[in-house]
Amino acid sequence: MILLTGATGKTGSETAKALAARGVKARALVRNAGKAAALQAAGMELVVGDVTDADCVRKALAGVSKLLLLLPNSEQQLAQEKQVVDLARAAGVRHIVKMSSMEAVPGASAPIRQIHWESEQYLRASGLAWTMIRPDFFMDNFLGSAGTIREKKLFALPLGESRSAMIDARDIGAVTAEALAGQGHEGKSHDITGPELLSCHQVAECLSGVLGTTITYVAADPQAYLGILRRVLPNEWHANAVSALFREIAEGVVPSRVTDTVRKVTGRGPFTLAQFLREHIAAFR
């Protein structure tokens, strides 16, 4: 049995879809059964509870051999992930697949990067088999700018002139599902990217071509953008952490690179940005 945490989020739901398409039996630990109705309809077993509740996690881990560790970014994330690793080991889980980030490196200073790196190290030292899933910047993040793209023909992010090998969440889900259901992924870190390095100016050009109208990228002032984050994210820590991550991306602290991981793991190439935008065109019009 495979247990998924984070199964109702972007990458977790794509992983669940990919597992269902393979006919793989899986279970999901979810806080809201209503949000997980589609998972249940696809044949996934649900355990309703919170990942911070050790008793709920123990219940969900019964009979599980592989686990997807995918928790939301928060100030408590590292402690929560360590607890899940410990509970999984005690329950007899053999293999944990952790959702991390390509930006998680030794000496990382942005809090989100630090948390992922320290969690990776804890899992490596646990004695369990492990696989790290380390995606680059999500194409799906541009859906958060759909409103200003529709209404003002622009989007603003504090990313300067930086370039990222942006990745579609479907590709992350496909690689994660293979790591959970396939063979030979133990002890590997899968750095996942899209097929090309793109700046936000190039994203704007691609959007313009897909939508048939001129879309402009505005390099937002970091402090002004932090004010926006404080209005839309759940707490001050999360807003500051995302702001710090954007700052390091803009400064090129961890330069992006293109990898061939998606093709090696899944046997097909990753989705391009143009494909992603065309398939989500309704959001931007």
Strand content: 15-25%
Parts with pLDDT < 50 across at least 5 consecutive residues: none
How would you spell out the order of helices and strands?
Answer: EHEHEHEHEHEHEEHEEHEHHHHH
Q: So what's the oligomer here?
A: single chain
> So what's the overall shape?
globular
Which second-level CATH architecture of the domain at 2-135 and 168-193 and 257-270 applies?
3-Layer(aba) Sandwich
CATH topology value of the domain at 2-135 and 168-193 and 257-270: Rossmann fold
Provide the helix percentage: 40-55%
DSSP summary: helix tally:
13
Structural class: alpha/beta
Radius of gyration: 19 Å
| CATH class descriptor of the domain at 2-135 and 168-193 and 257-270 | Alpha Beta
Gap from first CA to last CA: 42 Å
Number of DSSP E strands: 11
Look at the structure and give the mean pLDDT: 94
CATH H-level homologous superfamily name of the domain at 2-135 and 168-193 and 257-270? NAD(P)-binding Rossmann-like Domain
Main sheet: strands, sense, barrel: 7 strands, parallel
Strand order of the largest sheet: 3-2-1-4-5-6-9
Model description:
The protein has helices at residues 10-21, 37-41, 54-61, 77-91, 111-124, 146-152, 169-181, 200-211, 222-232, 236-251, 261-266, 273-279, 281-284; strands at residues 2-5, 26-30, 45-48, 66-69, 95-99, 129-135, 154-157, 163-164, 188-192, 198-199, 216-219. By secondary structure, the chain is an alpha/beta fold. The chain has a domain at 2-135 and 168-193 and 257-270: 3-Layer(aba) Sandwich (Rossmann fold), CATH 3.40.50. Strands 3-2-1-4-5-6-9 form a 7-stranded parallel β-sheet, sandwiched between helices. Helix 4 (77-91) links the parallel strand 4 and strand 5 (95-99). The chain starts with a strand and ends with a helix. The model has no long low-confidence stretch (mean pLDDT 94).
